[in-house]
Amino acid sequence: MAKGDDGTVHSCNSLGMACVIRSLKCSTNYTVSVISSNFMCNSSESEVISIETAYCPPENLTTSLDCAANEALISWQGAPSLNSYTATMTDTGDGLLSCSSTKQSCKVSNLKCGQLYTVTVRYHDGNCPGLTSKAIYMHSVPCGPANVTTSVDCASGGVNVSWGAQRNAEGYITMISDSNQQKTVYNTTEPQLSIPSKNCGQEYTVKVMSFNRSCVSFPSQVKFKEAPCQPTNMTATKNCGQNIVEVTWQASLGAKNYSAAAIDGSGQRLECASNGTSCRLSGVVCGRNYSISVVAVDDMCTSKRSLPVQLLSEPCSPSELTASVNCTNNSAKLSWSSSLNAVSYTGIAVSSDGHNVSCSTQGLGCQMEGLRCGTSYTFTVSATDGGCQSLNSKSVIKTTAPCPVQSVSNTLNCTTNTMSISWSPGSMPVNYSATVLSPNGTALSCTTEASSCSVGTLQCGQRYTVTVKAVSSTCEGPSSVPTIVNSGERL
Fold first, then answer.
1. What is the 3-state secondary structure (H, E, C) of the chain?
2. Which domains does the chain have, with CATH numbers?
3. The Fibronectin type-III domain covers which part of the protein (predicted)?
4. Residue 491 pLDDT > 60, yes or no?
5. pTM above 0.70, yes or no
C-alpha cells in the first residue's frame, strides 16, 4: 500500500512476496507499507518506507534551428536542477543525437541534412530517469542539391542547369556569378533551370541551394563557360611565290584554340589551327578567290565565325605564249592567254649572252623592240596582280634575222670570166647568198653554207655590184655593203 502526500492510497495484492502498485503520480512522495492477511484478519502494518516516483516529463517542448551553424536549440519547461535533462533527436534512419543540460535548454549540433527529427526530453536525477516528454518534430537544414550539371548550348550561348530533387525541399535558389562577382539569382520549384546567354567566353560559377520554410541549404557548386567569343580584326596576307597565306586575328575571350579556313569558288577548303593568334594556310592555288574566316574553340564549343575576308591569290602563269619575229627590224610580237587575278603582264626575251629586252601591258600581247640580229632568244611572259608576280610561262625560243655579212672580198679571173667572193662567217649556221649585179640588171648568184663561193660567165669590161647576205630558216639578213668590181681588174 502506497499513500501519497495528498492522502490518495494505491495498493496491490499478491500471494507471493511482491506486487506492483500502478498508476502512481509522477514527481510524488509516497509512504509504502505492507500488511498480511489470512482472509479473516489483517496483520499490523510493516515498517513504513518513503519513495519518490519518477519526475514528470518536461512540458512545452520547443525547437529552433540555427541554419548557418546547423544546430538545433531545444527548450522546455521544468525546474532547474543540480541533476540534468537529456534531449534526444532521432532521425528517420534511427540515428540518434543528444545533448544534456541542468537548465531548460540545450543545443544539438552536426545535424544530418534533409531529416525529419523526432525530439524528446526527460530528466535524470542520478537514480531514476524521468518520464519522456511528448515528442515533437523538426526538419533539419535541407541538403544541398546533388548531381548539379550544366549543359551549354553552343549555338545560342545559353546554359541548362539541372540537379537531383531533394526530399523536404520546397524550392531551389540558383545563383550565377561571374569573375567580377556580379550575381544573378533565380528561384524555381523544379530541379532544373534554363539561363539565357550572358557574355561570350566568360566563366561563371553556379551555386544551387534548396530551401524549406525555415532554412536554405548549403550550396552545391559547379562552373561553366559560355562559348568563346567571335574572333575579330582578322587579316589575311599572301606570301608571293610560296603558295602561303598568313592569317592573323585578335584573341577571343574563352578560346583555347583557333581554326582558320579558306574556301574558294569551287568549294575547295584549306585549314590551319593554332593556340595563338595566327596560323599559316598552305597549298594556296594561284588564280583563286578565297573567302577566309576564323573560329575560336574551347573544350565544348566553337564560336561564331569571324567576318570573312576576301583574298585573291597570286596570278597563275600565262599560257599559250606565242612569239613571232619581224625579220626586217628584229622586233618580236608576243601574245598569250589571260591569267586569273592578273592586272598586267610582262614579256621578256633573254639571249644566251644575257642580253634581255622586255615589254609590259595590261592586255594579252605586246611588241618587243631592240632585239639583236643573229641572236637566239628565250621568250617568256609573267603576270602580276600589283603585289605578286606569277611564275614565268612556258618558254618559246626564236632567232632574229642574221646580221649583215662582214669583210666581203672579191677576186676576178679574167681568163675564165669567174669571180670568187669570200666573207667572214657569222656565229650562227646559216646559208649565204652572193649576188653579182651588172649595169643592165642581169644578176648572177651563188649560194653556200661556207664562207666563199664563185660566180662564172662574167663579161669583161663590165662594172659589177657585189653583195652578200645570210639566210636562216626563218629570215633573210640584210645585204652586205655593196662592192664595185670592174671586169678585167682585180680589186
1. CEEECCCCEECCCCCCCCCCCCCCCCCCEEEECCCCECCCCECCCCCCEEEECCCCCCEEEEEEEECCCCEEEEEEECCCCCCEEEEEEECCCCCEEEEEECCCEEEEECCCCCCEEEEEEEEECCCCECCCCCCEEEECCCCCCCCCEEEECCCCCCEEEECCCCCCCCEEEEEEECCCCCEEEEEECCCEEEECCCCCCCEEEEEEEEECCCCECCCEEEEEECCCCCCEEEEEEEECCCCEEEEEEECCCCCCEEEEEEECCCCCEEEEEECCCEEEEECCCCCCEEEEEEEEECCCCECCCCCCEEEECCCCCCCCCEEEEECCCCEEEEECCCCCCCCEEEEEEEECCCCEEEEEECCCEEEECCCCCCCEEEEEEEEECCCCECCCCCCEEEECCCCCCEEEEEEEECCCCEEEEEEECCCCCCEEEEEEECCCCCEEEEEECCCEEEECCCCCCCEEEEEEEEECCCCECCCCCCEEEECCCCC
2. 1-53 (no CATH), 59-139 (2.60.40.10), 149-225 (2.60.40.10), 232-312 (2.60.40.10), 322-399 (2.60.40.10), 406-486 (2.60.40.10)
3. 57-143, 230-316, 401-490
4. no
5. no
